[in-house]
């Protein structure tokens, strides 16, 4: 029974710690200084003259990842630029059923144009068809529907091109080096886009017979997995000349692993175009020398297209009266030379 | 009816008659059986090391690879130590991965980083403890089933983590934290994260095997009703156990911040499954009443070594997952066999 | 019931010969023979660990024998699985009821052989009416086949188990201590059922610790000891008790109680436990009780009379609706086990395995679990000291084997009970609450346990004893409180009572002259 006072004292201690912690934590959640203006606003708008009022419905997946978050920000800030555009944006969801429900709600609300970035393109085809049948034109953003009838216009990135451009950039850098070795840190392997990026990368490397891809590991777009997989790759390959990493978010972890291993003997190319990656390219003090864009500004462009559709206009700069049925964006390679140009589009 | 001499009195041994030393049998503690199971897991590890050594002798057996494997094991290892206690008590904590995520992003917000090293460490630990406290109160005093309470915590902690980060990666700018993760910080060739893991393991082992806390944990897991009737405060014990698990998550979150140099809401993905799997193949009973820290740590090392060997041999992640599943099944089957063998 | 069966005229229904079964480290059955005649009640006797459970599991198809032969109605058979045994017409009612609590009575009865349409659609109505029919035959038409089994009493669950056995075409039913959870009138009903079965030519293999039951319904007896059949087919009614007990235990033991000390001795001592108007709504009316050091007080009553509830309420495991419990004059916090334990109260619960023991652990850890802080300094355990103290306590109670590292589940019931007693002895407790201390304990080991309990009282402990066996309460206690439907109807010196008087009180509620 000597334990009676001891335990109750312990209980008290826990209590006070918890209370004081709570006070401190509320102070700590604040993330304010981090908020920065999304940069896509600077890009030229399609047609700046206000026209007929347009309500655009926007449905996207949950923004649990830097790039997807940038998509939302780009869409919102672009819509804000047009006084006549009202944006109806749904809570992002990765659940196909939930997203179908959200799109149907937007259809019922009778929005003028829909912009849909599906969590899963194939699974949302039916609801895209529904919207089109209801007379609401659909802009399909990035992840493509199974049927062209389900959208009026598709706009998205080029995953194959991303890999191709990354491969070509590395090829040019290493073209004079005999027996050059490259490795690849891929993204989530069960996504089709990862396979396309790898395919493009491999196809580009075929043009350079002196270069051999010696290793490939798949991370899952998270910093944690990027660090873990990169650390393993570095251990497995004591010497190589170049690394292509599919995603700048997981690249944060990969760069961390490279720094931890103290390796500097190769060049690294990133993917997607995060601000942190562009900053590193500009500073030129790490192995990261370039990144291949998969621009989230496509969301801003989608809003432009939606507005044009809603106001029955074409695109300025094009002779056609109608906007095109599909637009594939170019995956530019950002290097130290051109980084200033792209820096405003970098996402965090 | 009453007979003067009952047989009990006749053959009751006088305690002093054969004064056996109190220490007799002391060298053969009850933990022996668990150790036997650990031996079979050690065997698995030995086979893996042989496979690694044969397929990639230069890379696998290098010191740097040992450092790598141990570093990769350290974070999930700390979480598994906490999980082992919870499972031993007959509970489960599904929220560990989410707590790690929440603690890591909370500790890396700009506002927290202004407080530097101490601010990050303190916040990570307190967030872990706070989540553990909520889990513990719901389960011990709210009467909720651990599975449900921690499932709810999983969902809400992940949600809060997303809310805080807005889906963005929070880079750490505090150099004293970042420096802990690089090679220069190694102490006698041992990465600091591995030292933390080792310390948590040793403390966990002592706590489970040498303290009243550990004994009560096992009693609660073995038979909660009997423990209650034996005078143990079962509810308070449960509260402490989830606090402990939360604390381990907080420590792990800090370690992850050091390793990844950032906080992200996707951190700690599926840690709950990895930790449960490691504890179970280590020999901790999912139904409670028996737990082994050494086994859990071995379980973690087995999984990490598999990942390492597959990566060194440049094999696909799909194959890794298949191998992991096979190891879980094999280990549990072997355990069943050894358990049954000595049971009848 | 048929008279003495004549084995040479009618071939036996079942013959098991030379059955052996080993588990790692244990030879559970060592060449057992058993012969059962159709229509007889064949009793199986033996101490715990004698091999009864293993033998009936072999018979039920749950264990495969290593060697030996089983002949069923003249043919050699192998019982590869419980289903194979059931198909032959062998049903087993286990002591630990194996019902699914979440299913209804009818669903339990027809579990695994549901009447179906098209092979998979369960015809629920048919199952329910068939169940009702069987329950009626068993004398329990009041059990609703649609009722959930979890809501039934232990006795009703037993009936459901039996209905399950009878839902098959049975020729042989094995009953493992079917009367253990039953009240006397329930036991009468059970015997009526058994009589009905045997009249239909069904054989019953009946396992019980209670000799008087075997006398009442048994035809023949087979006695097991250490995995061997030491006596086969003895006449159940005529074999002297002394002989049966001698065969079971291997020595000459009587159902003996230790000598009681002079009753005057305790009277002048101050009571250590005082219970004042303690009550729990719906369970028992206000009880007053005093317990002095050195005294054993018994509570006698039927299942449901509130005897266990009183004990658990004193211990704080249940919260009283009125009244209080005082130890040395200071009240305990109501509904707090820890308060009771700290004040020196210990409980040996009725369900030893479910409420008392850590079955995966060693003897030491089971004994020390309530006194951990005694062997620790700021939380760190001194395991050497812990083990030594546990060993001292278990030696004092002559617990076998004398190995503190032995796992508790390998011990016999009596020795497990001693481990629970040792726990409180080690804790230094002053009031010991014993709930059915000899349940599941062999006849031979009981006397030893009685002696231990008396010795503890002699050393100054106050003991409150609950038992459903009236002779046990009368033989062991100094004073007896007789309970009926939640009220104390009589309090007397144990010497002034006899079994009939207590049973009268229990049934009628008024002392007969």
Automatic annotation (TrEMBL), chain A:
<keyword id="KW-0732">Signal</keyword>
<dbReference type="InterPro" id="IPR006311">
    <property type="entry name" value="TAT_signal"/>
</dbReference>
<feature type="domain" description="Periplasmic binding protein">
    <location>
        <begin position="56"/>
        <end position="311"/>
    </location>
</feature>
<dbReference type="Pfam" id="PF13407">
    <property type="entry name" value="Peripla_BP_4"/>
</dbReference>
<feature type="region of interest" description="Disordered">
    <location>
        <begin position="32"/>
        <end position="51"/>
    </location>
</feature>
<comment type="similarity">
    <text>Belongs to the bacterial solute-binding protein 2 family.</text>
</comment>
<dbReference type="InterPro" id="IPR025997">
    <property type="entry name" value="SBP_2_dom"/>
</dbReference>
<protein>
    <submittedName>
        <fullName>Substrate-binding domain-containing protein</fullName>
    </submittedName>
</protein>
<dbReference type="InterPro" id="IPR028082">
    <property type="entry name" value="Peripla_BP_I"/>
</dbReference>
